[in-house]
Every structure is written in C-alpha cells, then in structure tokens.
Design brief:
Layout lengths: L10 H15 L1 H7 L4 H9 L18 H14 L1 H12 L9 H9 L6 E2 L2 E10 L2 E11 L7 E9 L5 E10 L20 E11 L3 E3 L2 H4 L9 H28 L15 H35 L4 H29 L9 H12 L8 H10 L10
Parallel strand pairs: 1-4, 2-4
Antiparallel strand pairs: 2-3, 3-6, 4-5, 5-7
Helix pairs in contact: 1-4, 4-5, 4-8, 5-8, 8-9, 8-10, 8-11, 9-10, 10-11, 10-12
C-alpha cells in the first residue's frame, strides 16, 4: 500500500506508470540476454525517463529529488534492472550545467534523451597531450552501456613520468568503444553492466571534466552532488524491488498449502506476523527517504544550498533504504518457502536483484559510520556526504 495520493501526480510519473506493462513483458528477455531489450531502452529514452534531472535549458524535465525517486521506484517495482538503469542513467544529466556549454549541447542538444554510462576505473589514466588527453585503461560495471550514447570514463590524470597530478571524467562516444563482457551475475542482470577498455584514445579538452565532479558539483535541479543522487535513486530501486517481493508473497499466500501441513499460507500466523513486519520496515524506510528528499528540496528552494548535516541525513536515509530493502526481501523470501527458489518465480528475481544492489558501493554499511561522525560534530571519514 502507498499513500502517495496526497503528494499528487505529475506528467513524468504518469509516463513511468505507463511504461510498466512493457517492462513486465520484457522480463524474460532481460534475464536471458542480460540487457534491456533495445526496443524497451529506446522507449524509455523517447518517453523522457533518462532526462528527469536534465536542466530545462537542454530539454530536460529538471525534476526535484522527491519526484525523481518516485519515478525510479515505479520502474524498479516493475523490474529491478530497468529501475537501476533509469536511476543510474538519470543521474548523469545532473552534471550538464558543469560542462562546457558546447559539450552539453553535443550530448543533449539534438537528443535530450541521451544516456551517459560511466564505469569503475581499474588502473585507468589520462595523460595531457596537445589539445586534449590520451586515455588508457579498463572500466568495469558500466551500467546501461549497451543502450548508452556516451561513456564517461573516470581516470587519474598523469604526467609524462606517470605521476598522478589530478583526476577527471572523460566523455567518449559509445560508438567509439568496443565493449567486453564482465557481467556474469545473477542479480540485476538486465543492467548490462559490461566492461570496456581503451588504449591511447584521444579525448578533446572540452570533453574532459576535471576534478571529482560526481561528489563536488551540485546540479541546478536538486542542489545535490551526483553521489547523493545515485544513493537516493538506488534506495528507491531497493524499495521498488522489496515492494514487488511483498506483493508476490501476498499473491502466493492465497493459494499455497505447504507440504505436510493442513493450512494455507493465508492462514499461517507466522506469515501474518512476518508480512506485517516486512510491510512496516518497508514503509518506515521509504518514509524516511522521502522525508529527507522533501526536506532537502525545501531547504534548497529557500536557501539555495544544503548544509552538510542535511546531506548526511539524506545519505543515511538512502543507505538505510537499501539495507532495509534487503532485510525485507529476505524475510518474505523465507516465508514463501521453496516456491521462491525457482527461476520463474518473481520472488527469486527479487532475491537476486536486491543482493546485487546491497553489495554495491552506495549501499556500504560503512556509510553509517560516516554519518554517525557527522552527527557527533566530527569530520566525516569519507567524502560521501
């Protein structure tokens, strides 16, 4: 059950809801081919679901954070991989107003639905040469790269002697890059998070974003850095997956009679209590995330910036949502019994997806320690807030 009616709907949310049937119909393809079907990815682009945070000047929706995460959650409830792709791909446009104007226009000017994928760098370097940089290295976990238009390759900047002098993100047309595999996983398979390698690839200076832009630049739509938008989006992906798991248990309970018993799950008091606990944990973690998203939006609208303590609370709410979503899915998975272990049961996919999500960087339990330090007036031990 949701109580969002009081928050009201909006055009982009209705668009997200309208995509749910197509996403559900694509689940088999998503799991079998480890990617969103090209037609579905194209529809998500055309319907504007990758430009929710893109500034209006470039043709985007420039949504507030509460509106953005509601859209992501709707998509994730239909399919975790689709939600992840929309959340991941939807955050990068937060950097549009940080780029040289000609670069932003090159990416989104003729194609406001353009998707930029990133990837985690492994020994990747960029050396200044002439009018740009020579980019070499390997990147993994590039979510959405199969339907991306551009890749934003993070790398250390090095001098001629190989000494690190800085850091940057380098924009490369997806068509210039040969993708590898590197995505042999059970959960979030459809994100297509492949790896790629570049060797002495030239990147012109206007396509280089210098500095740790994902945590330093606060976009005009939300006043928040991309790292906190990723956390909020993935918190909503977790909540969407957990919601699907709860609903799957309720659908199962009416018809399943476990072997060697004489009553349905519907009549089992352990199921009654466990389901209620799962619903409470889901609702509480969702309420906290939405409360902090709305508080940040209010503060930004009235003060034009967000203090560290408020950013820390948003980080806390997002991390809590991801971790609690895992707890909720585990609880209802156990209550569902052996039905949940089969590939063709929705609970199985929820279990695999949520455990892929809780293993990634934005869900690290270490974030609780960082937030706790900020709450006590200490310096954070990690630049995640």
């Amino acid at each position: 059950m949701r109580t969002d009616e009081r928050r009201g709907s909006f055009a982009e949310l209705e668009t997200a809801l309208s995509m749910v049937p197509a996403i559900k119909a694509a689940r088999e393809h998503i799991n079998r081919h480890s990617e969103l079907p090209p037609a579905l990815a194209a529809a998500l682009k055309e319907r504007g679901l990758f430009k929710l945070l893109l500034p209006k000047v470039f043709g985007g929706a420039e949504l507030s954070l509460p509106c953005f995460i509601r859209c992501v959650e709707v998509i994730a409830q239909a399919d975790g991989s689709a939600g992840w792709c929309v959340g991941q791909g939807g955050v990068f446009p937060n950097l549009a107003d940080r780029m040289p104007p000609q670069t932003a226009r090159e990416i989104w000017g003729a194609n406001p639905g353009a998707v930029v994928a990133t990837g985690t760098p492994f020994g990747s370097t960029a050396q200044p040469i002439g009018d740009g940089y020579q980019l070499s290295g390997k990147w993994r976990f590039a979510s959405g790269c199969l339907h991306a238009d551009w890749l934003a390759a993070m790398a250390s900047i090095v001098d001629a002697d190989g000494q690190v002098t800085g850091f940057g993100m380098f924009l490369v047309p997806r068509a210039d890059v040969a993708l590898g595999d590197g995505w042999n996983v059970s959960g979030l398979r459809g994100t297509g998070s492949r790896e790629y390698t570049l060797d002495a690839h030239h990147v012109a200076a206007p396509r280089a974003l210098l500095g740790a832009v994902l945590r330093e630049h606060c976009g005009m739509a939300t006043g928040l850095p991309a790292q906190l938008l990723f956390a909020s989006a993935f918190g909503s992906v977790g909540l969407g997956i957990a919601r699907r798991a709860i609903d799957s248990l309720m659908a199962l309970a009416g018809g399943k009679m476990p072997v060697f018993t004489n009553r349905k799950l519907l009549d089992d008091d352990l199921v009654h209590a466990g389901l209620a606990e799962a619903e409470a944990e889901w609702g509480a973690s969702r309420a906290f995330l939405h409360e902090m998203a709305e508080a940040c939006t209010h503060q930004y609208a009235n003060a034009g910036e967000l203090p560290q303590i408020m950013r820390a609370h948003l980080r806390l709410a997002a991390t809590h949502a991801m971790r609690k979503a895992g707890v909720v899915v585990d609880k209802v998975f156990t209550l569902a019994g052996s039905d949940a272990i089969f590939d063709d049961h929705p609970m199985h996919q929820c279990f695999q997806d949520i455990h892929a999500l809780t293993q990634q960087i934005q869900a690290r339990p270490a974030h609780f320690r960082t937030v706790g330090r900020v709450l006590l007036g200490l310096d954070p031990d990690s630049p995640v807030v």
